[in-house]
Q: What sequence folds into this?
């Protein structure tokens, strides 16, 4: 038995045979061509076919998997821009080489030039270039595009995988995914998470693994090759225990979110698109604590119209009924950019013009979203919150814009509710001003993902910093405590909606801090509910927060 360790990207256990996927180097040979025009025409035909294939894939996945669809949409735009195409055609013309060789060379030159850069956007672009190039080479070589995994489900191992490659495979044939390259924040990892299959990255996978029996432990990031009977027996028991635990958790769907000593806590869901609404209801969330509205702005060619936004928010409101739905205004910029917006390139986009800053710069876009939310408010129980706030002046400017929006709706006789508003606390500046910000808010919501990286001055997506990045850092936890105390002093409820909210090892600590609500991805609702219901705060109840009646019952 051989043991290999990597970085877990999605939890779970898989047992089965490995299929090593090797896209190969295609054995591309360089040779001189005598008819440049014919070679370029062949290349252009291949480009047109690849663009057509990508558009078809986008149409298939845009309804069921918006994150994956955006990858295909981005690759189509890359082909439409033509810079990669011009570079290949230029090499064909000047060096009189075959198209496949020109594609391979151009691909490798670009990859080698930018391979050491850690920016997520650059890594995504390199992955796009490689995926497009491989499609073109397969076409020019006459290889079929469908990736077959065989008849039986397999553990998929590879040096690297693009989101496009995984999405072209039969999902019910994939037991787990193991790759040498990549990170647990990459687009490929996002796709495997959506598929809910165990996945591990940063493992030295080898072609010699092909056909061998293996165990993938997605909890610990470990692969066991050729496991002995004792190990197989242990992991089969763990698989059964996993299934039983999931079945047991499902019994909690209709249970109240309260501690063992009767303290009630609101448990909400974070979602990124309308496809997740069924999961919110299925797992019995109290409501939606964070609706990321970026899904309406990404993977498209122009700004969404107000009526399109309105229809989406109306659907959410009607689907959720009386349950609270908190819509975060669009948080674009940094690694979430739409080309049609022409956001200027920044040296450090994660610290740049993003979130509310961009919205206040582009008030026409901002007002359209605000009008859509207010128009949809009579159809359910909507609330609104603003991302990346760092000053009271920003909030005052927002209040002025909201007043203008409401006045415009009044003039047209369009009904709306006076919905509750909140502020996301995502920066140390917002933490230090949380008392002042609470005076302008019905609730505060702590976004621990950005708050942690800004507090530690570490990019959370940088794999080099993976072992140094500590989201349990005492400074982060102290900031959360400061926000809760400041909010409660102003009779303002406080929620945690970042990844830390789903960390069951911190559930009781957050409750003792006095947090009023937690918001997590739908799949984590039941595990957190279980941890919440096991917590007993009666022995060390913190008196400084006063009686529950001193604060509103809902956000």
A:
């Amino acid at each position: 038995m051989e043991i290999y360790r990597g970085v877990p990207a999605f939890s779970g256990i898989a047992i089965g045979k490995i299929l090593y996927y090797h896209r190969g180097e295609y054995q591309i040979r360089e040779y001189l061509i005598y008819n440049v025009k014919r070679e370029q025409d062949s290349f252009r035909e291949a480009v047109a076919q690849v663009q057509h294939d990508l558009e078809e894939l986008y149409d298939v996945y845009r309804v069921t998997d918006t994150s994956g669809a955006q990858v295909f949409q981005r690759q189509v735009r890359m082909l439409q821009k033509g810079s990669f195409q011009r570079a290949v055609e230029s090499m064909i013309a000047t060096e009189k080489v075959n198209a496949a060789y020109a594609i391979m060379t151009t691909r490798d030159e670009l990859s080698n030039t930018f391979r050491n850069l850690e920016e997520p956007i650059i890594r995504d672009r390199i992955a796009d270039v490689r995926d497009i190039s491989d499609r073109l080479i397969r076409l020019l070589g006459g290889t079929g595009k469908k990736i077959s995994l065989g008849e039986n489900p397999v553990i998929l191992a590879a040096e690297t995988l693009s989101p496009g490659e995984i999405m072209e495979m039969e999902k019910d044939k994939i037991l787990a995914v193991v790759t040498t390259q990549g990170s647990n924040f990459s687009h490929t990892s996002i796709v495997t998470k959506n598929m809910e299959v165990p996945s591990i990255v940063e493992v030295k996978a080898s072609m010699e693994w092909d056909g061998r029996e293996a165990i993938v432990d997605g909890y610990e990031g470990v692969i066991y090759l050729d496991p002995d009977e004792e190990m197989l027996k242990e992991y089969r028991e763990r698989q059964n225990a996993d299934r039983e635990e999931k079945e047991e958790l499902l019994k909690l769907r209709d249970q109240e979110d309260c501690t063992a000593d009767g303290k009630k806590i609101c448990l909400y869901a974070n979602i990124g698109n309308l496809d997740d609404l069924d999961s919110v209801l299925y797992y019995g969330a109290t409501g939606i604590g964070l609706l990321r509205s970026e899904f309406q702005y990404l993977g498209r060619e122009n700004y969404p119209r107000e009526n399109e936004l309105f229809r989406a928010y109306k659907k959410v409101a009607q689907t959720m009924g009386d349950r609270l739905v908190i819509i975060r205004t669009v948080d674009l910029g940094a690694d979430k950019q739409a080309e049609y917006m022409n956001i200027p390139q920044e040296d450090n986009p994660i610290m740049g013009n993003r979130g509310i800053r961009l919205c206040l710069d582009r008030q026409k876009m901002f007002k359209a979203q605000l009008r859509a939310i207010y128009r949809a408010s009579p159809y359910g129980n909507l609330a609104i919150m603003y991302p990346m706030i760092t000053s009271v002046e920003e909030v005052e400017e927002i209040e002025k814009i909201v007043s203008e929006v409401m006045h415009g709706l009044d003039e047209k006789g369009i009904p709306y509710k006076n919905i509750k508003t909140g502020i996301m606390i995502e920066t140390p500046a917002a933490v230090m001003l949380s008392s002042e910000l609470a005076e302008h808010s019905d609730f505060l919501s702590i976004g621990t993902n950005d708050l942690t990286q800004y507090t530690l001055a570490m990019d959370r997506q940088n794999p080099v910093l993976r072992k140094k990045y500590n989201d349990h850092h005492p400074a982060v936890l102290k900031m959360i405590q400061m926000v809760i105390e400041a909010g409660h002093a102003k009779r303002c409820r406080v929620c945690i909606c970042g990844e830390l909210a789903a960390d069951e090892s911190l559930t009781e600590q957050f409750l003792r801090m006095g947090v009023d609500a937690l918001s997590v991805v739908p799949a984590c609702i039941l595990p957190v509910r279980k941890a919440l219901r096991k917590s007993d705060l009666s022995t060390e109840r913190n008196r400084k927060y006063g009686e529950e009646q001193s604060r509103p019952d809902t956000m």
